[in-house]
Amino acid sequence: MTTEAGSHLNRPADQPYRVGFLLIENFTLIALATAVEPLRMANQLAGTELYSWELLTAEGEPARASDGITLLPDASVHDDHRFDMVIVVAGIDVTHSFSRTEVSWLKQMARRHVLLGAVCTGAYVLASANLLDGHSCSAHWECLEALQEGFPRVQTNNRLFTVERERMTCTGGTVPMHMMLSFLARRHGRELSNAISHMFVCDRVREESEQQPMPLHQRLACAQPKLAEAAQLMEANIEEPIELQELATLAGISRRQLERLFLKHLNCTPSRYYLRVRLSRARRLLKQTSSSIVEIASMCGFVSATHFSRCYRKTMGRAPKYERTQVYASDVADSGMIDTMASLPSSSRQALRRARTEPTYGTFEGQPEGHPEGQPEGQPESQPEGTASG
Asked: Fewest CB atoms less than 10 Å from the CB: which of 31, 230, 267, 269?
């Protein structure tokens, strides 16, 4: 592992380690905050400026976070910088949120052997600059399909964060804090990083090798480990679905036991759940990649595009082509949605509209307290339970 990249630059020993945070439009504020704060606290506890940091955008323009909050950067990428490390901070709709300017500048930083990092979905931007080719990388689970399909030379993994050969990538949420604590521990020792975690009331520093929790896995594991194992097998075998009997055998239970577990804990058959897993991946591919519907049907284990479209329409409530069209819609066409959002502050309304491009938009099946009765916009009515094969 190399975390001292950039130290060959002309930086006197008594000068702070310089970090640049490149803000990509629609970045997640939590990822930025949890990456910056450990550096601030390191300075505070050490009583000296160990680290300095700047916020950057492509042209020096204000950067809007995914929650609608706008930040003023310290500089643009065109200014003269001598960073030791640059971290790309991205968030929702990352595939459409950056430009050639950021890509070109990141390549320039790589030629200077600056340590390059990424948080949340920022790895997609590094991959677009061909700066992760041959590297292992971590990214938010919602972005993994787009990385895997768009950049086959990138070795994606499901770890919380990855540090390898002048690259440092991690998932989202609060994980950037753990990556930075690990980084600080390697540079200054565990005593400082532990002191920082205590200041943040963080009772455990998570390790690089830990896996990011995937949707439902933790809940399933608590309810029934065999059920979680079966669900993980389904998610690992999407392009070539495996028969339920083989699935049960691999999970170490009978097919009848498997069916009972799914009915008891998830209120659906194993076949129905497997179909939803495959269609959920199809939805992410539709929203995050330019792959054709025929290609996506094949990637998700359907025998034909027609069969895929029929299953998708029945389960998701719309045809695949309309799902993709919605990503690029500039206005919210549904008047009912506008009415229910009329009393919301402008920033929250705009944030929700931007979130329509995300694969998880409108997928919460519960009814949030205070939400008007009826299905959220874009959420299909529930389907009768039954066995659906792909």
From this structure: 267
